[in-house]
Amino acid sequence: MTQWARMLSAVTGIVALMLVATVATNWAPDRPVSGLTARWAQPPSVFKDVAGVRAHVRDEGPRDDPTPIVLLHGTADSLHTWSGWTEVLARDRRVIRVDLPGFGLTGPAPDGDYRVDRYVQFVGALLDALGVQQCVLGGNSFGGWISWETALAQPGRVQALILVDAAGYPIESQSVPIGFRIARVPGLNRVMQSVLPRGMIESSVRNTYGDPSRVTPELVDRYYELTLREGNRAALAQRFAAGRWAADPARVREVRQPTLILWGGRDGLIPLRYGEQFNRDIAGSRLVVFPELGHVPQEEDPAATVAAVSQFLREIEPSL
């Protein structure tokens, strides 16, 4: 064996050992939901059968509220993102949160269908299961898209909208979390169903914050552990593979409900210009911008953002 051949063999061996060590260090197989509920489904969490899935739901506040507030999280998130809002709103309003199919403790949809239309059907089924006839519907990012589509599909049921850095338009992102980029790559997304560096989750969460220093280890724990929920990583890859990453922009102009639009000025995933477009397209809507916040302003600064929500609800209360 020549000297170069020996060197190549040695380098190949070192690389192989590094790969094995990386996989071993970051080996993260799916976790059953039963192993996650003790930490992430504390009371008042319940699990309800909704449209073929066992949905993780939190239903808080006075039950005599005729128009509950229903909140939908975004991609790879969970109902916990609304905890700060709920602490304030549930003092005098009924607040309903849910882990959407494919995310959080609810887990994957049995039929693997993650189209927006199916999520709209899920929201309708959830409201039926909870006996809600009318509601104020709010959503962040993908949850925002589901919210305004639900308002179009069931206009008599959705009395008002709260859109938080909402999706739906064809977008050009300034920055995309690494977890989302990997989930879109065939083959690599399959590897990530067994290997998941915690640092990748931390990087993705920090990417969505206007001020990354607000990201705590406990917050990363939540995103990391709920990503490991059995079936969630496969569901994320399926959803990215499903296509239809934008609606017909003309449909937004059909929204007639009173609408509050909240946006983080440092959102790199869905930049502020799309919030301004929602504000132009939805007649009578109001846009409130938080210049220092990012893609999940309800989580990054719940006190400031929920104050705008409370004011909006007081103003529209006579019409509800």
Verbal overview:
This protein is an alpha/beta fold. It has helices at residues 3-25, 37-40, 83-89, 116-130, 142-153, 178-183, 188-191, 198-208, 217-227, 232-241, 249-252, 272-281, 297-300, 302-316, and strands spanning 45-50, 53-60, 69-72, 95-98, 135-140, 158-164, 259-264, 286-290. An eight-stranded mixed sheet has the order 1-2-4-3-5-6-7-8, sandwiched between helices. Helix 4 (116-130) packs across helix 5 (142-153) and helix 8 crosses helix 9 (217-227). Mean pLDDT is 90; it is low at 4-24.
How is the topology of this model organized?
Layout: H1 3-25, H2 37-40, E1 45-50, E2 53-60, E3 69-72, H3 83-89, E4 95-98, H4 116-130, E5 135-140, H5 142-153, E6 158-164, H6 178-183, H7 188-191, H8 198-208, H9 217-227, H10 232-241, H11 249-252, E7 259-264, H12 272-281, E8 286-290, H13 297-300, H14 302-316
Parallel strand pairs: 3-4, 3-5, 5-6, 6-7, 7-8
Antiparallel strand pairs: 1-2, 2-4
Helix pairs in contact: 3-14, 4-5, 8-9
Please tell me what the overall shape is.
Answer: globular
Major sheet: size, sense and barrel closure?
8 strands, mixed
The fold-level CATH name is Rossmann fold
Please tell me the total number of domains: 1
Q: Give the SSE order as H and E letters.
A: HHEEEHEHEHEHHHHHHEHEHH
Which terms would index this structure?
single chain; 320 residues; alpha/beta; Rossmann fold; 14 helices; 14% strand; globular
